[in-house]
Amino acid sequence: MHRVMEVNEDSKIHGLIVQLPLDSVHTINTERIINSVAPEKDVDGLTSINAGKLARGDLGDCFIPCTPNGCMELIKQTGETNTSRFQSGFCHCNSLFVHFSSCSDVTISRSCVPKPIECLAKEVGLFSDEVELYGRTKAKVQLKTIDRLQAQPDGKYVVVTGITPTPLGEGKSTTTIGLVQALGAHLKLNAFACVRQPSQGPTFGIKGGAAGGGYSQVIPMEEFNLHLTGDIHAITAANNLVAAAIDARMFHEATQSDKALFNRLVPLTEGQRKFSPVQISRLEKLGIKKTDPSMLTEEEITRFVRLDIDPESITWQRGVIECVLLKITIGQSPTEKGFTRTAQFDITVASEIMAVLALTTSLADMKERLAKMVVATSRSGQPVTTEDLGVCGALTVLMRDAIKPNLMQTLEGNPVFVHAGPFANIAHGNSSILADKIALKLVGPQGFVVTEAGFGADIGMEKFFNIKCRNSGLKPHVVVLVATVRALKMHGGGPTVTAGTPLAKEYIEENLVLLEAGCSNMRKQVENAQLFGVPVVVAVNAFKTDTKAELDLICKLAKEAGAFDAVHCSHWADGGAGAADLARAVQKAADLPNSFKFLYDVELPIVDKIRIIAQKIYGADDIELLPEAQHKVELYSKQGFASLPICMAKTHLSLSHDAEKKGVPTGFVLPIRDIRASVGAGFLYPLVGTMPTIPGLPTRPCFYDIDLDTESGEVHGLF
């Protein structure tokens, strides 16, 4: 029986015959053995499920034995060929019935009944013991899948980015999903989307959800846009545990002697004191090679118990899911004895723990990264880590489920990994390496994995290449650059585009002069992609007010700028069929010679790396380090962090630091006001200009329209 179950789970074995009789000497329950065979691998058609369906005439929903099946095929003379696909058979796509374009995203999402997630998992080649179900529409995938598929060749790796967007967004998520639907449901290739989990702040604020839109969505969109499987909540809990550990340690050091601290940090248990593993690690870091607490000298005890955190150096902030602008004073309770300090909140998706989740390559790697996170500096100038605080093991426990990618599906039944959600203008803006690696193995060498990099190519794409690919070792095959008529007209000098207000007439009437002027931004972003040696395909995301002349002009200018191809797409209105031309262009581009390279050597000085990004990607004349940033350059160089890559925290609304400057700004100097270190994640992030680390809520947030129908259980108001 165990051997039969192994064969059932093995995607390389397509059929199983039970040779009868089983044994003429020992009694074996023949019916039990036959019915343990998976119905889809039951070549003889003898399981109760297949035999029953065959008897009822359900010929399209059972495994018909070879002889009668062959006879029927000869009779029908259809000439139909075998439609099985590589490895796991990503072939069971949902039929998409396009109604009319005025349907809301949530209405469209609910019009499609998703496959049971365990069926999708089986289709893509996952074993049942590799999948943890979270209801009927989502599941987590265990990391042991990577080990099982280690020898499997990777598929083609595609990143979707965009021109500098309007505040409305230009449809990168929609294009990512539409492209995967086109590759899978229409070109019949194995295709997997890998996207970020959206933050609830923008979902309830002004931007809305991030499941794609129209007929190119991840479904169910309510599940996608809300709690999903709780990963962001786990990150919030872990982030705030670190914040609590910092304040608790500072309080206890300020109110206790060395001896009292030591006795509480290493308490007597059954008459003995014993260091915990994380405390042994701290001793080793201090160069104290002792494991017996009674052997420490007074000087060693002082060094062990005193982190001596400089309150002004604390870089770790509390985390919150919603978008609120908050600075707080903590320590005001009488029990805190007057030890107050100013702190603040950052949005959870800007937490270093989120970046760690996105960039980690294994559970052991995540544990190591969490331990290396620097939260402050001691008064003597030494970095203070979560390992020094003794909290890193607890963080790993809180994150043990969040590290597993979440499996969902598109409207057309294509697989999607939703995993990690670092902001792109604050953090590095890409979904997880682990999701990409598993998906690349599952699709096989002729398949495609399509992932999205947040905001414009100057933001998410640059970080995708210089940070994510540097950590993963993966080599991308194609860049898809999303452009819209609307955004390009804005860059050509069109009126201000503001979320929540109607578009000016320039955006809904044909204006080729304005459009051509704005294509300078597209040209620059094509050039940015080409700096990394990867072919570029421009996807012109068409809106109903765009004219053919406008769409054709963008395609013409994109090719002249050096794009391999440029096509206009209607995937929002038509699903995968509307991105079929894009899919064919991507398929051709993926076969081109590829000379992928990084923009800079990480061993260069910090300032040189920042300057290279500013000049080559943004078009700045130079950079200016303000005093705090200059101090951090010196501090991080002294602390040994100078060889980390750079993650620029910059506005996404302009190539420059000034959100009002559209098109391709020139003649500017990029101001760097501060630099922070995400040592566990593995990058330094300069704060450019006035870039905040938490966005604010508008006067009328989206949550005014979000409600629950208590009769049907349906969510209203999400978009």
From TrEMBL:
Pathway: One-carbon metabolism; tetrahydrofolate interconversion. SUPFAM superfamilies: Aminoacid dehydrogenase-like, N-terminal domain, P-loop containing nucleoside triphosphate hydrolases. Pfam families: FTHFS, THF_DHG_CYH. It catalyses: (6S)-5,6,7,8-tetrahydrofolate + formate + ATP = (6R)-10-formyltetrahydrofolate + ADP + phosphate. Keywords: ATP-binding, Ligase, Nucleotide-binding, One-carbon metabolism. Gene3D superfamilies: 1.10.8.770, Formyltetrahydrofolate synthetase, domain 3 (3.10.410.10), Leucine Dehydrogenase, chain A, domain 1 (3.40.50.10860), NAD(P)-binding Rossmann-like Domain (3.40.50.720), P-loop containing nucleotide triphosphate hydrolases (3.40.50.300). Residues 3-44 form the Tetrahydrofolate dehydrogenase/cyclohydrolase catalytic domain. GO terms for biological process: 10-formyltetrahydrofolate biosynthetic process; folic acid metabolic process; methionine metabolic process; purine nucleotide biosynthetic process; tetrahydrofolate interconversion. One of its GO terms (cellular component) is cytosol. One of its GO terms (molecular function) is methenyltetrahydrofolate cyclohydrolase activity. InterPro entries: Aminoacid_DH-like_N_sf (IPR046346), Formate_THF_ligase (IPR000559), Formate_THF_ligase_CS (IPR020628), P-loop_NTPase (IPR027417), THF_DH/CycHdrlase_cat_dom (IPR020630). Its EC number is 6.3.4.3. It is an enzyme of class 6 (ligase). Homodimer. This is formate--tetrahydrofolate ligase. The lineage of its organism: Eukaryota, Metazoa, Chordata, Craniata, Vertebrata.
